[in-house]
């Protein structure tokens, strides 16, 4: 290395006045970083406690609990993007679920109205028009009880059909 006071980038003047590459750099111009797995002065140290991809050319392996240079922890922008995407999915799923519930409730309401209309069973024409059967007190009472039972049975059968 030259003895001039002007040293290349990534180099400093040592005690003798010669240019010396900073830790993590090699070659006469100090332009080349240490290769994978080596670090420090003249790339004389080897990373043994971490994968080579995590080995920093200047400092070596990162300390436990720290992020290596160019590390794997997401940036603040990435975290915001992840949270936004996750929130969007949750909102979309909730909206879809709410839509399906409301739609199901409307269908059930329509079906119940339809069932109510079809539950009226007229077993005998003119039942309410004063026929002989409805005029006799005992016959009328028996007729009413039986028609209620039959209507109830028909309603139960129709409901089972929709299940």
Fold and architecture overview:
The protein is mostly helical and 163 residues long. The chain folds into three domains: 1-71, Tie2 ligand-binding domain superfamily (Tie2 ligand-binding domain fold, Beta Complex), CATH 2.170.300; 74-118; 121-163. 45% of the residues lie in helices and 9% in strands. The protein has helices at residues 76-118, 132-135, 137-162, and strands spanning 11-13, 19-21, 25-26, 32-33, 38-39, 45-46. It has a two-stranded antiparallel ribbon. Strands 3-4 form a two-stranded antiparallel sheet. A two-stranded antiparallel sheet has the order 5-6. A hairpin with a 5-residue loop joins strand 1 and strand 2. Keywords: Membrane, Transmembrane, Transmembrane helix.
Topology:
Elements: E1 11-13, E2 19-21, E3 25-26, E4 32-33, E5 38-39, E6 45-46, H1 76-118, H2 132-135, H3 137-162
Antiparallel strand pairs: 1-2, 3-4, 5-6
What features would you highlight for this structure?
Tie2 ligand-binding domain fold; two-stranded antiparallel sheet; 3 helices; transmembrane helix; 3 domains; membrane; two-stranded antiparallel ribbon; 163 residues; mainly alpha; transmembrane
Summarize, please:
With 163 residues, the chain is mainly α. The chain has helices at 76-118, 132-135, 137-162; strands at 11-13, 19-21, 25-26, 32-33, 38-39, 45-46.
């Amino acid at each position: 290395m030259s003895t001039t006071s002007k040293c290349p980038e990534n180099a400093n003047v040592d005690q003798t006045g010669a240019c010396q590459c900073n830790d993590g750099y090699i070659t006469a111009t100090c332009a080349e970083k240490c290769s994978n797995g080596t670090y420090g002065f003249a790339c004389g140290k080897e990373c043994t406690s971490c994968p080579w991809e995590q080995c920093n050319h200047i400092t070596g392996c990162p300390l436990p609990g720290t992020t290596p240079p160019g590390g794997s922890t997401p940036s603040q922008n990435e975290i915001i993007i992840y949270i936004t995407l996750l929130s969007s999915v949750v909102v979309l799923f909730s909206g879809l679920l709410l839509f399906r519930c409301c739609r199901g409730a409307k269908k059930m309401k329509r079906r119940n109205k339809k069932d109510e209309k079809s539950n009226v069973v007229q077993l005998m024409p003119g039942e309410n028009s004063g026929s002989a059967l409805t005029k006799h007190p005992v016959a009328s009472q028996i007729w009413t009880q039986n028609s209620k039972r039959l209507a109830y049975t028909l309603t139960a059968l129709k409901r089972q059909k929709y299940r």
